[in-house]
Amino acid sequence: MSTFDSIVRSHSAGLLAYATRLTGGDRHRAEDVVQETWVRAWRHQDRLTEDRGSVRGWLNRVAHNIAVDQHRARASRPTEVEMPEGDPTSTPEPTDAVLDRLVVEDVLEALPSAHRRTLVEVYFADRTAAGAAVVLKVPVGTVKSRVHNALRTLRTSIPAQEAA
């Protein structure tokens, strides 16, 4: 049995328990965190010796970083909400839909073109901030700030536009 195998055998249960706590009890997410932790451990086997520090501490830190990264990635994506099918109260009138679309088009048209293009990439093309940054050839931080500023503008503009 290799050294890596013995590390996996001795630390798997504890690592899964730790990852489960990190993910708020979500076993599937915890398993994903543990799997990615073992992939990184495999790539950095040279760091998994007690003379370089606690193996358990290193594994826990890597698992913690992965859990935080996954949480941030999920938090940066908008939550999808399914509308109940067959509920007549949830179906807008065709005229309302047309009017809503016209209001949104007017407000989007009023945005600076850089903000509008960024919103289109993130929401309509369903790209992550990183994906939109590549398409728009700007840093990820710029994409995030443009989305934030554009949404703030939309929140204030749409009620004003509907009142007009």
Q: What does this protein structure show overall?
A:
The protein is mostly helical. The protein is 73% helix and 0% strand. It has 7 helices and no strands. It is elongated and about 70 Å long. The model has no long low-confidence stretch (mean pLDDT 83). Residues 70-80 have a biased composition (Basic and acidic residues). Keywords: DNA-binding, Sigma factor, Transcription, Transcription regulation.
**What are the secondary-structure elements, in order, as H or E?**
HHHHHHH
Would you count the extended β strands for me? 0
Low-confidence stretches: none
Q: Mind telling me which CATH architecture of the largest domain this is? A: Orthogonal Bundle
Helix content: over 70%
Assembly type: single chain
Structural class by SSE content: mainly alpha
Provide the β-strand percentage band: under 5%
The mean pLDDT is: 83
Shape: elongated
Number of helices: 7
Distance between the termini: 75 Å
Q: Might you state the CATH topology name of the largest domain?
A: Rna Polymerase Sigma Factor, Chain: A
Instruction: Give a quick account of the main beta sheet: strands, pairing sense, barrel closure.
Output: none
| CATH H-level superfamily title of the largest domain | RNA polymerase sigma factor, region 2, helix turn helix motif
The number of distinct structural domains comes to: 2
**CATH class annotation of the largest domain:** Mainly Alpha
**Gyration radius, in Å:** 23 Å
Protein name: RNA polymerase sigma-70 factor
InterPro entries: RNA_pol_sigma-70-like, RNA_pol_sigma-70_dom, RNA_pol_sigma70_r2, RNA_pol_sigma70_r4, RNA_pol_sigma_r2, RNA_pol_sigma_r3/r4-like, WH-like_DNA-bd_sf
GO biological process, one term: DNA-templated transcription initiation
Keywords: DNA-binding, Sigma factor, Transcription, Transcription regulation
